[in-house]
């Protein structure tokens, strides 16, 4: 590899908004044959909005008050909705985030739980009667979260996040380049599959806990694949480091950008197949 052609390749990439941290990552990108994409903020815009709530107003007030303490994008959607409706939020006495599952908090002496099925079953709250309702939301690609107050189910909140407009075209190009495309998410399988279908991804790994994302990348590597991981969140950082090429979404967290080998500006997914094209032409010219 001549240093000059690597420099030219990196320069061309940078002009398009693809920032390689070092020339060696052009070589790594050239060798890729699988790519793993995080869902929220990578395939989708990461700006979820509340679409439904099945409980009453008092329940929503407690729900939004509890979520005020969370930094999760899902929480942001719920708080934004309450603000829009000019709902007064109540001071939280205790707050506890349960990564990959939800939150637990204490408000006006009441225990408020918000999260997925696992969170509810772990707390012995029976949600069997709401399974059908949950499935309906999830089939629509929405993330459904359950609310329980003092151990009793009080409603389901559904949140939807739109796919990036260029995601289907980017996925199509990646497949044409011979890459296996996989979506990885902490969200439930039904929601994940609905989103994957909208963008043309056939392989989905869902309900992955934040600390398990890197293990999933390793498993694919053990199948003999050279794997790129694309992500935006703090959760994605270990997987970005583990991957042969870590690609951060420029609009994502600083932690993800630091962990990655490449950053794509503006989160434009079409820049990924473009980066691969540039790597091919650069490396081929070298050999
Ligand atoms: P993602 O990979 O989509 O960022 P996470 O691993 O952060 O997902 O979360 C997985 C699931 O845990 C969410 O889909 C949601 O059901 C639940 N969850 C996480 N954080 C919260 C929260 N603040 N409020 C309610 N539910 C949450
Ligand atoms: Mg994300």
What gap, in angstroms, lies between the N and C termini?
A: 7 Å
Q: Would you list the SSEs in sequence order as H and E? A: HEHEHEHHEEEHHEEHEHEHEHEHEH
Average of pLDDT? 96
Tally of alpha and pi helices? 13
Helical content band: 40-55%
Describe the structure.
The protein has helices at residues 3-16, 24-30, 39-43, 57-67, 73-84, 117-122, 131-139, 167-176, 189-199, 213-222, 237-242, 254-259, 271-286; strands at residues 18-20, 34-38, 49-53, 94-98, 102-107, 110-115, 143-149, 152-160, 180-184, 203-205, 227-231, 245-249, 262-264. With 287 residues, the protein is an alpha/beta fold. The strands form two sheets. Strands 1-13-12-11-2-9-10 form a seven-stranded mixed beta sheet, sandwiched between helices. The protein has a six-stranded antiparallel beta sheet with strand order 3-8-7-6-5-4. Helix 1 runs antiparallel to helix 13 and helix 7 (131-139) packs parallel to helix 9 (189-199). It binds adenosine-5'-diphosphate and magnesium ion.
């Amino acid at each position: 590899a001549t240093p000059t052609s690597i420099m030219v390749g990196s320069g061309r990439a940078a002009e398009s908004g693809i920032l390689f941290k070092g020339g060696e990552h052009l070589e790594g990108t050239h060798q890729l044959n699988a790519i793993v994409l995080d869902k929220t903020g990578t395939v989708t815009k990461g700006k979820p909005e509340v679409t439904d709530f099945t409980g009453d107003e008092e329940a929503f007030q407690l729900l939004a008050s509890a979520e005020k303490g969370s930094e999760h994008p899902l929480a942001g959607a719920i708080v934004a909705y309450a603000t829009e409706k000019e709902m007064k939020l109540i001071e939280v006495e205790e707050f506890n985030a349960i990564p990959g599952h939800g939150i637990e908090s204490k408000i006006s002496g009441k225990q408020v739980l918000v999260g997925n099925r696992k969170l509810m079953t772990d707390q012995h709250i029976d949600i069997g009667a709401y399974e059908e309702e949950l499935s309906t939301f999830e089939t629509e690609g929405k993330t459904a979260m359950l609310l329980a107050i003092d151990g009793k189910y009080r409603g389901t909140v559904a949140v939807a996040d739109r796919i990036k407009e260029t995601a289907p075209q980017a996925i199509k190009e990646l497949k044409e380049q011979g890459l296996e495309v996989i979506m990885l998410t902490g969200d439930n399988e039904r929601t994940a599959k609905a989103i994957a279908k909208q963008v043309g991804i056939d392989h989905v790994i869902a309900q992955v806990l934040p600390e398990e994302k890197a293990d999933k990348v390793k498993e694919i590597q053990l199948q003999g694949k050279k794997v790129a991981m694309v992500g935006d969140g703090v959760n994605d950082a270990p997987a970005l480091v583990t991957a042969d090429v870590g690609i951060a979404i420029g609009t994502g967290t600083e932690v993800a950008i630091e962990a990655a080998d490449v950053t794509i500006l503006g989160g434009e997914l079409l820049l990924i197949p473009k980066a691969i094209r540039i790597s091919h032409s650069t490396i081929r010219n070298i050999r």
